[in-house]
Structure formats: C-alpha cells, structure tokens
What we know:
single chain; alpha+beta; BirA Bifunctional Protein, domain 2; seven-stranded mixed beta sheet; 9 strands; about 20% strand; binds 3,4-dihydroxyphenylalanine
Amino acid sequence: MIDRIEELERQATAAIDEATTTVALEQVRVQFLGRKAELPNLLRSVSDLPPQERGAVGKRANEARKALEAAIGERVAGLEATELDARLIADRIDVTLPGDPPQPVGRLHVLTQTRREIEDVFLGLGFSVLEGPEVETVHYNFDALNHAPTHPARGRTDTFYTGDGDVLRTHTSPMQIRAMEQYPPPLYVIIPGRVYRRDSDATHTPQFHQVEGLAVDKDITLADLKGTLLDFSRAIFGAEREVRLRPHFFPFTEPSVEIDVSCFNCKRNGEPCQVCKGTGWLEILGAGMVDPNVFAYVAEHGYDPEEIQGFAFGMGIERIAALKYGIPDIRTLYTNDVRVLEQFG
Ligand code: DAH
C-alpha cells in the first residue's frame, strides 16, 4: 500500500513539473487529488484496513496529499505571474499612436468655443459661472425683472409657454434674481445658457444662447460697466477695440444702454466695410445699472438699493460668434454640416 502511495506521488510530481499552464495544472490536480482520484479514495478507505496498518498508511497518504497540494499551489502562483506578464506584453496598446489609418480629429463647435472664450475672460476678471433652469416661471422671467404686464415679450407670439403656464426662458436674465436669492452681495457672476423665442431668420433662431452678467457691490457705477465690457471686447475682438454706450431701454436696468464695439474689419482693404455697413460700430449687447425695482424683489436677501448698486449685461453667443467669424447666417450653426463647422477653431 505504501509503495502504491509513493508511486502515485512520483507520478503526480512529474506531471506537476511538466505542466506549463495553469489550465494543465488544474487537470493534474483533478487527476491526482480530485474526488474520483486514487489517492483521496485510498485515504477514505484507510478505516477498512487491518488496525496495525491504518496508522502508517494513513500518515503516508496524508503526507503525500499535502505535499502535492503545496507543490501545485506553488506552481500555480509561478505560472500565473508568467501568464500575466505574457498577457500584458501581448495586449499592450500604445494609446498615443495615431490611428491606422489616421482618423480625422474633431473639434469643439464654434458656439462652445465662443462660450468658453467668453467665460475665460470673465473668470479672469473675478466673475464666477452659474447656470440655471431653461423652463422658468413667469415670476423670474418677467415679473421680478420689472416687465410691465403689457410688455410685448410676454405675448404668445414672442414666447413659448408650457401647458401649466411656465415659459421657456426668453433670456438668461431671470438668473439675476435666482443668483441674488442664493448668494449675498458682493456678487460677480456670469450665466451662460440656452434661451428660446418665437423668432427665425438669418440672424435669429428659436433656440439660441446668451451669457448674462451681473455685478453687485458697493459703489458700482456705469464706469465699472464700461471698463468691464471694454476689457471683454478687447479680449474677444482685438486689443485695438473701443466701446461706446448708446441709451436704450430694458425694464430691469435704469439707465439702460446698448454697447457697440468699434469695427475690427474697417479699413482692412479700403473698400466700404460690409461688417459694420460703414458705421464703424457693431452692436454687441444690452446692459445697464440694475433697476432698484429689481433689487426690491431680493431686498430680504441683503440687497438694499440704498446700500448697494449693480450693473448687468446680456449678450447672444451666436451674435458674438457671427461677428467674430463673419458668419452670414447663424442657422448654419445648427444644421451640422461639417463643411461649415470645420472652418472654425
Ligand atoms: N435680457 C436682454 C435680452 O435678452 C439682454 C439684457 C439687456 C440683459 C440688459 C441684461 C441687461 O442683463 O442689463 O434682450
């Protein structure tokens, strides 16, 4: 009996040495130590042996089983490490290599580029970026922004209403109110986002993008507004730019202005300028000093018009991009024709 055990151990040891994969080793384990293998069966039948043989045979068979298990375990660990190494080498992919054939690299949409450029300018001036809801209440979109009940923007011909009386925001200005409700002064924020109007022609689309700006602090004046937007204009349209303020009307600012930037195209080739139609100026946005009536809606949040002042502005990202890149029809920005989109950036 002992001889047979030793013979089995020799055979198993040889098989373990020969196995070159973890799969092969598992087969060896099943063959010599599995449920139907001879050695474990032998161990199980030790009790059937004459009492004087049981001790020696049981001990030897147990030793053999333990030794084989240990040998297999050791070999598995060794093979696993080698197999992992081999797999790592075989599967190695250099993600920095160009594709084969090289794939064309995409780029950001010109509106995304322009939005990020605008954000960068204002971040550099100490403003933070906020976002807000596109489905807005009449309160935030119109009432708290001092729009009279008869203001034409409220009409169904100008604005998209939802079934329950909310609106797709017609501008990013409602975020002025939401920002002041949420954060106490001093406040310096810009709010980029989508807005919606019943408008559609070469320079208007039913959905477009704006960037709102709001600065509230002590001793803010129109000069701060002008300086901020001059800086902005120079960063976006070139260091030589000037800005001018023209009186205008917005319900939520008093006084209100429209801001023009000096044309960056004029005198390039001596011909009459197509971009500014010969006026030398390009309208880029609406702005003004925050109307005290607007502060009244957020007075309980620390906005006392006797204590603080603010300026606000709102610009269309499509308009900024169209001016900057000379895009004659902004609808082409939404038709996903790569021949158009590839031209920018
Ligand atoms: N909300 C205005 C619009 O969509 C733009 C605007 C004008 C925003 C003046 C302002 C502002 O913050 O002060 O036409």
